[in-house]
Design a protein that fits this description.
The chain is an alpha/beta fold. The protein has two domains: 154 residues, Rossmann fold; 127 residues, Hypothetical Protein Tm841, Chain: A,domain 3 (2-Layer Sandwich). Helices cover 42% and strands 24% of the residues. It has a six-stranded mixed beta sheet with strand order 10-9-8-13-11-12, with helices on both faces. Strands 2-1-6-7 form a four-stranded parallel beta sheet, sandwiched between helices. A three-stranded antiparallel beta sheet has the order 4-3-5, covered by helices on one side. A hairpin with a 2-residue loop joins β3 and β4. α3 packs across α4, α5 packs antiparallel against α6 and α9 crosses α10. The relative contact order is 0.16. About 5% of the residues have low confidence.
Length: 288
């Protein structure tokens, strides 16, 4: 049975990439300016427009992908003769994975030929996208479903997520920073360094003063933690700050030989919680 890969929009993959590779991406819903907009990789609302609205003071919120959305796509793929692999956004950050698990049980109870595997990647943004990318490469090279699932299970907790944010207000609103810390940090130009843990949680890891030092931190950390750098593509997502992406890629190339870069803007699903100016780098290390 041929395998099809499904993910969600919190993977922050480029629209052109998912279309070219026929990857189904279910959209997180974003509540913004009194309306609900799907995070469909920039089709309904461009990333530029989203960040412009947020910079003008809007604080969007998100809602998980519902069970019926997963039931519909799982059924359709099963009817078309596919085995399904859903690579989901980290469960501690969203209830979306639970929706997928419920939908899987509904469809497998109803359709005895259904072959549906749901994996919590414990990853976010292009960390999740990195998993999807390598799975897609394996699929194109003829890997079996069992081989692909084993690779994900062996490697997802090696995917390093290192993030710095520009606006502490979004972390405060999300409960990841106290109000007092956000105010003091903003006054002192403090830039927190965040990471995704083995449990899939987003947590503060360190803090530095100023954007320049935060970028240097990401580079130094990569140099210390990456394995087989010359064989790796470095994944970078950003909250509409391409100039800083260029500084980051230039600095990485001066310190480490890498195979290349895969860069995309953080979509509204993740961007609603981290805000404009966020800069994140993802790669495989020995561990997180």
């Amino acid at each position: 049975m041929q395998l099809t890969v499904i993910t969600d929009s919190c993977s922050d993959l480029p629209l052109s990439y998912v279309k070219e590779n026929k990857i189904d991406v279910l959209p997180i819903m974003v509540n913004i300016q009194g309306r609900e907009v799907p995070d469909d990789l920039g089709e309904s609302m461009s990333h530029k427009e989203f960040y412009e609205i947020v910079r003008n003071g809007e604080m969007p919120s998100t809602s998980l992908i519902n069970v019926q959305s997963f039931v519909d796509v799982f059924k359709k793929k099963t009817e078309d003769g596919y085995a399904v692999l859903y690579l989901g956004f980290s469960s501690p950050l969203s209830g979306t994975l639970n929706s997928a698990l419920i939908a899987r049980d509904i469809v497998t109870d109803e359709m005895k030929n259904a072959d549906i595997t749901v994996i919590d990647t414990k990853c976010a943004s292009l960390g999740q996208g990195l998993i999807v990318y390598y799975v897609n490469e394996m699929l194109k090279n003829g890997a079996t479903k069992d081989e692909i699932v084993k690779w994900v299970q062996d490697n997802n907790l090696k995917v390093n997520h290192w993030i710095t944010v520009d606006d502490l207000g979004h972390l405060k609103r999300g409960g990841r920073l106290s109000g007092a810390s956000a105010v003091i940090g903003s006054l002192l130009n403090i830039k927190p360094i965040l990471q995704i843990t083995d449990e899939g949680k987003l947590v503060p890891s360190d803090k530095v003063k100023g954007r320049k030092k935060s970028i240097k931190y990401l580079v130094d950390n990569l140099k210390d933690k990456i394995v087989d750098s010359e064989e790796q593509i470095i994944f970078i997502s950003h909250g509409d700050c391409l100039e800083d992406v260029e500084k980051l890629t230039d600095a990485i190339q001066k310190e480490v030989k890498v195979k290349g870069f895969f860069v995309n803007t953080i979509g509204p699903g993740v961007g609603s919680h981290v805000g404009p100016g966020t800069l994140a780098v993802f790669y495989i290390g020995k561990s997180r």
